[in-house]
Amino acid sequence: KSPQPIMARPLLKIHRYFRRKPIRFFSFILLYLTAGSLVFLHSGFSSDTSTTGASGSGRDPLISEGGGGTGAGSSTSDALGLLGRVFKETRRVPRRFGPPWMKENGAQDAPEGRNTKHIGCYIDDTQKRALRGVSFFDYKKMTVFRCQDNCAEICSLWISTFGAECYCGHKIQAPNVSESECNMECKGEKSNLCGGPNRLSIYRLELSQESARRYGSAIFKGCFKRPDNVTLALPASAVIKNMSVDKCVDMCTEKEFSLAALAGEKCHCGFPTPLFTLHEREDEELCLQHCAGEDFESCGNNDFFVVYQTQVQDNRCMDRRFLPTRSKHLVALASFPGAGNTWARHLIELATGYYTGSYYFDGSLYNKGFKGERDHWRSGRTICIKTHESGKKEIEAFDASILMIRNPYKALMAEFNRKYGGHIGFASQAHWRGKEWPEFVKNYAPWWASHTLDWLKYGKTVQVVHFEDLKRDLFSELKGMVIFLGLEVSEDRLLCVEGQKDGNFKRSGLRKLEYDPYTPEMCATIDGLIKTVDTALRKRNLSGVPEKYRPR
């Protein structure tokens, strides 16, 4: 018998070892697979996200973490229920180096309707974060405004220790230190600082009036003058010891009111009514009185109230039904796809109490509560009928129409997202960067113009509603739509609609393109179409397209 080769002897011993101890063999395999998985995850985090987007994988490099992020010592409930800070400080807070909110961020790519103010540099403790909200990270492209865009519904935001992490929150729970200690550049923006070792650069997010500022689950509505008859306007009230926004919101939620109004030590609860419409917003400086129970919050005073909308649903506009008698008068709710037709249907149903119908059938809309979706569009049981159709024959089938028009730059992107991502989803990066987007713009942009021109030409009675005007002044525009539909206006219902205007089909702001998808050639074509539509509207003595459209 020939001797075994020297190299084979160790292998033979290993083989005999695992045959005698099979459980050790499986343990070895498990450790091997675990090590391989860790290597794979590390390579995924380290890879260049720009290459990923260009290759068409569609993976979004910005990842959301619901539990407070790496090393955060807070629960999910803490992350979702943080306290709000929505007013400017008027005095120095202890342990602050330099006045707060004095340095304006001068970057040019700030999202519309938002502005950031640098507050200062703060100590970070991994066991007890300065802000304990939802976190995001991007090891290649993190910038102040990328963080800002993902904290759009929260009052303040910060960039973490190593310049690649973003945490959102309301309440700062750490002392302020010298600015020189926050000296690390942002990973994706060298001109801005993103904290330092165990230090955080904190920015405050200020939103325009049309943007939502949140306090946990409550929505900040603004500063308002005390109503003339406060007892009638806001029927429930109480004096609260050590007043805070949290305590007033909780009280009004328990009493099942949709509004919480803070007036110093007193908390008022109620609903929007003609006595307290929330339409005449005051300067926030008039409400700058700090809460007794929370120094970072403002509780208003006896003359000017700080108002929040609670999670309580206002049921005054939630009842909906089919028309009591069938109508032979067919009214179209016409729009180019992506122009806000579904949103307009939601508003009309709440404002009138009647279901809207559709020229088509969409099961997802039916399941979301649009019960008129199943009716034939000629049934006569709905208050108006959604349609994207254009052309003489289709238009003349209706006796009247509400024509929704939206900025084509916005409408095209909204429809592209719907086509490839669903009603509230998003198209992937692969679709945006691939051949689908240029082909889509080429085919759909001319349709945006021809759709409006056809309805203006062949429509029997047409009321034009611009999406931008409806968004800016919902009460007045929706009131005009209700009158056009031949119904009596209920101001209480309209005020109720204002508090529930978004519905179930609003896209989240968490995924937005970081570049302009329109090429110069596309812009030249679309700008020409805007001019054509603007001219057609003015020839019919209608107002032209809104100023928010590209310069004409």
From TrEMBL:
InterPro entries on file: P-loop_NTPase, Sialate-O-sulfotransferase, Sulfotransferase_dom, WSC_carb-bd
Residues covered by the WSC domain: 115-206, 217-311
Keywords of this entry: Membrane, Repeat, Transmembrane, Transmembrane helix
Region ranges (Disordered): 48-77
UniProt key word Transmembrane: yes
Comp. bias (Low complexity): 48-58
Database matches in PANTHER family: SIALATE:O-SULFOTRANSFERASE 2, WSCD FAMILY MEMBER CG9164
Protein name, entry field: WSC domain-containing protein
Species the sequence originates in: Sinocyclocheilus anshuiensis
